[in-house]
Amino acid sequence: KRAGRRKPGRKRLMVRQADCCCGDATIDVKGEPAIHAVCHCNNCKARTGSAFGISAYFNNDQILKISGETKIYAVHSVGEQERHFCPRCGTLLYWTYDYYNNMTGIAGGCFTQEPLGEPTMTVCNADKYPWVTLPENWEIYP
Q1: Consecutive sets of 10 residues in the chain, 142 residues long: mean pLDDT of each?
Q2: Which end of the chain, N or C, is less surrounded by CB atoms within 10 Å?
Q3: Residue 82 neighbours by CB distance under 10 Å
Q4: Rounded-to-integer distance, Cα 84 and Cα 111, Å
């Protein structure tokens, strides 16, 4: 048996790394996100400085490694959140949110080397800017 060979039919899980702008902080995950959504709430708009946030939630057992120093900013207004950001460049890289127990949210745009696929849902659409249009095949949560 040759080293490195996989058994037929066994699918290899994709490993991706999300990193901050300066590269000092990273988080490595395996597989696809359990939740991959575009969120239009005012909280996500403020955290990204954009019209919406792209959030990828991975089960905690999918996290392979977290590297580099992060600082934590706690948010109490929309449930309990701990946001981990790079103290050097300020990138918000990942967070925990009490609503999604046993999951970690990662900023979708931080997967620059191996980007995530298309999100599958859109949430908080009541706060969506009127000029933002979305694919018709996405799940919609008001």
Answers
A1: 54 90 98 96 92 97 98 88 97 94 96 95 94 93 84
A2: N
A3: 15
A4: 16
